[in-house]
């Protein structure tokens, strides 16, 4: 077993013990933390299973060549366009974008495109942006989108170039 | 969120019609991948539950309303980086703060870092992409958020 996973198991067990103890002895801090944990877990459980089902279906049905053609090295500017559109349709947040991006990379998407996808799914998910605009005004959301999306694309290209030059390997097969 | 369920259900139905075996294989892959990342998700949820206890909404409201603009932006972006909130909580909160007179640029720094910079999602991000990618992506995102915030300030006439 790796050191990392021993640490994870230890941390998770300590935490569970702490919650149990707080519950038994009526320790309010622990109860509040437990409540936070439960509400966030429920929130993510509403999204993650669907996301992973779609990831599985995608793995089985979509050919590697298709991903390579539209999001891979030959895709050019269209690759970025696709990744921003896909990000717009993403639900949840970064924690959904990471696995999706990771498996897209495994299927042949290029590094700069998946970095763009991660960044864009943080900032331009369509339902979220509509919600944002209704509270902050359209001007606010427009400024934010028009500035941040190009910045995300340019920095993703630079980041990808940096890691490609250093032959950085993202481990496949998680 | 409902459209996620609709899309997933439709995709499953079409997949079953097209090939039962392939669908089964897909679901096995889904399960395997989900459970292999689950410990990292648990660590992330633990971090979230503790940090949200230490930095509740009230604290966020207090700190974002500081008098000095640039301190405000800096503090907002730090709080946005270390916390995690779903949009349906964050934006109504920002709407209230806006009415209270908190500047657009401060709220922009807060929401953009909230969305793009994930200190709490570090366990999941680094499990997939490694430490180096995670740190660099988050650092860059932090600076993107600052640029966006300053530009928002300029365009809303809050700086000059």
In words, what does this structure look like?
The complex is a heterodimer of chains A (174) and B (160). Chain A is mostly helical and 174 residues long. Chain A has helices spanning 3-25, 28-45, 48-61, 64-71, 77-88, 94-106, 111-123, 126-136, 138-165. The longest helix of chain A is centred in the C-terminal third of the chain and has 28 residues, at 138-165. The model of chain B has no long low-confidence stretch (mean pLDDT 92). At the A-B interface, helix 1, helix 2, helix 3, helix 6 and helix 7 of A face helix 1, helix 2, helix 5, helix 6 and helix 7 of B.
Topology at a glance:
The complex is a heterodimer of chains A (174) and B (160).
Chain A: H1 3-25, H2 28-45, H3 48-61, H4 64-71, H5 77-88, H6 94-106, H7 111-123, H8 126-136, H9 138-165
Helix pairs in contact in A: 1-2, 3-6, 5-7, 6-7, 7-9, 8-9
Chain B: H1 2-18, H2 20-54, H3 57-64, H4 69-82, H5 87-99, H6 104-116, H7 122-129, H8 131-155
The Cα radius of gyration of chain B reads: 20 Å
Low-confidence runs of chain B (pLDDT<50, min 5 residues)? none
Structural class of chain B: mainly alpha
User: Sheet with the most strands of chain B?
Assistant: none
Gyration radius of chain A, rounded: 20 Å
Q: Estimate the strand proportion of chain B.
A: under 5%
List the defining traits of the structure above.
heterodimer; A: 174 residues; mainly alpha; 2 domains; 80% helix; globular; B: 160 residues; 8 helices; 0% strand; elongated
Summarize the structure.
The complex is a heterodimer of chains A (174) and B (160). Chain A has 174 residues and is mainly alpha-helical.
């Amino acid at each position: 077993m790796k050191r990392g996973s021993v640490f994870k198991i230890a941390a998770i067990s300590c935490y569970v013990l702490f919650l149990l103890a707080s519950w038994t002895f009526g320790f309010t801090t622990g109860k509040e933390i437990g409540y936070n944990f439960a509400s966030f877990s429920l929130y993510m459980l509403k999204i993650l299973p669907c996301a992973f089902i779609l990831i599985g279906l995608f793995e089985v049905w979509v050919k590697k060549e298709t991903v390579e053609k539209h999001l891979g090295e030959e895709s050019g500017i269209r690759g970025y366009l696709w990744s921003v559109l896909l990000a717009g349709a993403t639900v949840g947040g970064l924690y959904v974008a990471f696995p999706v991006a990771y498996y897209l990379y495994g299927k042949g998407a290029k590094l700069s495109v998946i970095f763009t996808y991660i960044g864009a799914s943080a900032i331009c998910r369509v339902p979220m942006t509509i919600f944002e605009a209704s509270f902050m005004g359209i001007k606010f959301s427009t400024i934010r989108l028009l500035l941040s999306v190009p910045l995300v694309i340019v920095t993703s290209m630079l980041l990808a170039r940096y890691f490609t030059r250093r032959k950085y390997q993202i481990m496949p097969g998680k | 969120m409902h459209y996620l369920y609709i899309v997933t259900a439709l995709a499953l139905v079409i997949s079953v019609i097209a090939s039962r075996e392939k669908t089964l294989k897909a679901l096995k892959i889904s399960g395997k991948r989900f459970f292999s990342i689950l410990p990292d998700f648990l660590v992330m949820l633990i971090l979230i539950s503790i940090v949200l206890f230490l930095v509740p909404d009230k604290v966020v409201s207090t700190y974002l309303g500081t008098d000095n603009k640039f301190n405000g932006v800096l503090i907002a972006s730090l709080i946005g980086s270390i916390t995690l909130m779903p949009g349906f909580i964050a934006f109504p909160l920002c709407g209230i703060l806006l009415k209270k007179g908190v500047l657009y640029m401060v709220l922009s720094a807060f929401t953009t870092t909230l969305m793009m910079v994930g200190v709490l999602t570090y366990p999941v991000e680094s499990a997939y992409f490694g430490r180096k990618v995670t740190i660099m992506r988050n650092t860059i995102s932090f600076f993107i958020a600052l640029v966006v915030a300053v530009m928002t300030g300029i365009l809303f006439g809050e700086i000059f």
